[in-house]
Amino acid sequence: MIHYHGTPITPRHQLYRMAGRHFCVSFARPDDLEPCLSIGQSVMLDNGAFSAFTRGEPFDLDGYVKWVEPVLAHPHWAVIPDVIDGSVADQDAMIAQWPRSFRDLSMPVWHLGLPIQYLLELAQRFPRICFGSSAAYWDVGSDAWCGRMDEAFNALAQRHHGLPWVHGLRMLGMAGLRWPLASADSSNVAQNHTRTGCAECMAAVLDSTQCRTGWKQIETQQRMFA
After folding, report:
1. What is the pLDDT confidence band of residue 224, given thresholds at 50, 70 and 90?
2. pTM greater than 0.90 (yes/no)
3. Distance (Å, rounded) from C-alpha 153 to C-alpha 53?
4. Helix, strand or coil for residue 174?
5. Which domains occur in the chain, in start order?
6. N or C: which end of the chain has fewer CB within 10 A?
């Protein structure tokens, strides 16, 4: 599992002590992009759609494309723009506007509140998918959230090609539990390192926890393809 640590991380010397880690930089807070590109193993470029949503502002798609374009290359990758609490049509409209030349280095977002069938369709179109918590499944780790994650992995595991790469948005704290996330991110270090005085120490603990690599079917109370 690859652990992406959200930024900005201040003061800057705390960030530099994390050299060699993986980082997540948001379009909404690009402060640490250049340092992270210099010291990180890889950088996840987040679209910042949730930040725009919470501020009641429209998402700047053109601005995000221009921001991503100069730095999008292996091993870095970008989250394709998504619509918070949007419909399947809303998500597909955003994907359609994303430059095709970016797609091999990008992941779409499947929101847990959207149909499982849409997840399966995305898995046919993309080798890697982000899971985003939404609607009744916004609270990461809640009973409803856990049940929905079980449904999603049950469905994906039945595909002929098996599980795709799944990245958990805001799910780094779920590492070590039953879901086989290939990568995940969180802002835990950025938000809480001042309590310990050592961002690198927190990152080291988080990075030492790994996810399982396989999935066994789990009985759920909900219909699998709801």
Report:
1. very low
2. yes
3. 28
4. helix
5. 2-207 (3.20.20.70)
6. C
